[in-house]
Design brief:
membrane; six-stranded antiparallel beta sheet; TolC family protein; OMP_efflux; lipoprotein; alpha+beta; single chain; transmembrane beta strand; Outer membrane efflux proteins (OEP); 63% helix
Length: 484
């Protein structure tokens, strides 16, 4: 019976609680405004490819198994990629926190305290008068000081009338998606950087081979000119010039060997390991470029490129933040219900008659000194505009990089064809100069010039070959390839 009576006594509290919960169902969610779209060109440099190489898996684009293994190793061991994964975990944790804000917080409470009421206070007079009543027994008499014991549950619940908490959850989820795109961006950049360094290594190997071949030819030239000096056909100046050329080539060899070491160490750092030799496949001269390279359409670039997708998610989250900042100016409804055992005597705390429950609902709205809310709203609007410009910049950068890489592939291909002819011609000229010098029809300076020209042209040819592959890698990265 005491429980039934207690329930009747709190019927008004129950009615208020049900009314406030019902009010929470009538929500006016503030929908974030959308930013204007960014116009895109119809095609890349008048090309209408339907599918670009960005949709290819890296094993389909890169035929060198050594390169593929290096990329696979980097994707499992690279420290930057591991940090990107942890950023995703942070964003996921923030999303869980935002979900919890929609639910009531319930705390188990065991509390004890006391109050000593003054003789001339409302509670003091009331308690004194109550103790004189014949309707109460000794257990109900109120002592002074008055203890207060509570054992039960207390809760606090903000009702999301305006969709503020839901929008916060939505913004947190959108940033979680943005962090996943950030991880994809690291994968794309990592794949491209490993390929760039690998092809740079192959190019340096090619330069080293060319230098060593020319060094052998120059040593024979020094031997020959020494014989001619002994025969009185040339002066010591010729010997000095040929020897100086040989020394210059040897110094060039030392610089290339150091560049190889530095490039290998950079690549090992990406692979998450200490310096060690890097295994290579075919030479760069034997590496094959795709017969045709397609880029797709700019609309596909927006769909695939991780930095653009990340910027788009960040823009969406920033717009949601503006709606949240607007909702901060509106009244917030908070419920604080409780249920438990409450008594001013420890001996009666566990008595069923000590059951107490209640709920308080209140609306609170900012009235004075709203500078904090105004400043927060202004900052949210500015961040939203900044996010839009960042999104716009990401698209402009992406389109520009694709066009540059496409043009690079086209231009370097024609340069390579011309340089092949140039190297063949200069080799013939070097042979001719040697024959003429032996027969006395050319000076030693002409021979030195011819040999140096061959070396420079061969090194330039290797560099052009490297530039072709780097343009291919840059195009693959610019199109958002490599992260799937």
């Amino acid at each position: 019976m005491p429980l039934v009576q207690s329930f009747k006594k709190h019927s008004l509290t129950y009615s208020l609680f049900i009314f406030l919960v019902g009010l929470s169902g009538c929500q006016a969610v503030r929908t974030p405004s959308r930013s204007p779209g960014v116009p895109l060109p119809a095609t890349f440099i008048n090309r209408t490819d339907s599918v670009g190489i960005g949709d290819l898996h890296r094993t389909k684009l890169f035929s060198d198994p050594y390169l593929v293994r290096l990329i696979d190793t980097a994707l499992t061991q690279n420290p930057d990629l591991k940090m990107a994964v942890q950023r995703i975990e942070v964003a996921r944790a923030n999303f869980v926190v935002s979900q919890g804000a929609l639910l009531p917080s319930v705390n188990a409470v065991a509390a004890a305290g006391f109050d000593r009421y003054g003789r001339y206070t409302l509670n003091g007079v009331g308690n004194f008068d109550t103790n004189l009543s014949g309707n109460i027994d000794n257990q109900q008499r109120i002592p002074n000081p008055t203890p207060d014991f509570f054992l039960g549950l207390r809760s606090s619940w903000e009702i999301d009338i305006w969709g503020k908490l839901r929008n916060r959850r939505r913004a947190a989820y959108t940033r979680l998606l943005a962090s996943q795109e950030g991880r994809n961006l690291v994968v794309t950049a990592l794949t491209a950087e490993v390929a760039r360094l690998y092809y740079t290594l192959l190019a340096l190997d090619g330069e080293l081979n060319i230098i060593e071949e020319n060094e052998a030819l120059q040593r024979r030239a020094v031997e020959l000119v020494n014989v001619q000096k002994d025969a009185g056909r040339v002066t010591v100046l010729a010997v000095q010039q040929f020897t100086a050329q040989l020394l210059n080539t040897r110094s060039l060899e030392g610089r290339v060997r150091q560049q190889i070491v530095e490039t290998e160490n950079q690549l090992n750092a990406l692979l998450g390991r200490y310096p060690q030799p890097i295994s290579r496949g075919q030479t760069i001269e034997n590496q094959q470029l795709p017969a045709s390279v397609v880029a797709g359409l700019p609309a596909q670039l927006v769909r695939r490129r991780p930095d653009i997708r990340q910027a788009e998610r960040e823009l969406e989250a920033a717009n949601i933040d503006v709606a949240v900042a607007q909702a901060e100016f509106l009244p917030s409804l908070t419920l604080t219900p409780y249920i438990g055992l409450n008594s001013f005597r420890a001996a009666t705390l566990l008595n069923p008659g000590s059951l107490a429950l209640g709920a308080l609902g209140g609306l609170a709205a900012p009235v004075f000194n709203r500078r904090l809310l105004k400043g927060n709203y202004a900052a949210s609007v500015a961040q939203s505009r900044g996010a839009y410009f960042a999104y716009q910049k990401a698209i402009l950068t992406g389109v520009s990089e694709v066009v540059s890489s496409l043009k690079g592939l086209e231009n370097y291909r024609s340069v390579a064809d011309i340089q092949t002819q140039e190297v063949a011609m200069l080799k013939n000229a070097a042979v001719t100069s040697n024959e003429l010098f032996t027969n006395g029809y050319a000076t030693y300076l002409e021979v030195i010039t011819a040999q140096r020209s061959v070396l420079d042209a061969q090194l330039a040819q290797i560099d052009t070959k490297r530039s072709q592959f780097l343009s291919l890698v840059d195009l693959y990265r610019a199109l958002g390839g490599g992260w799937e």
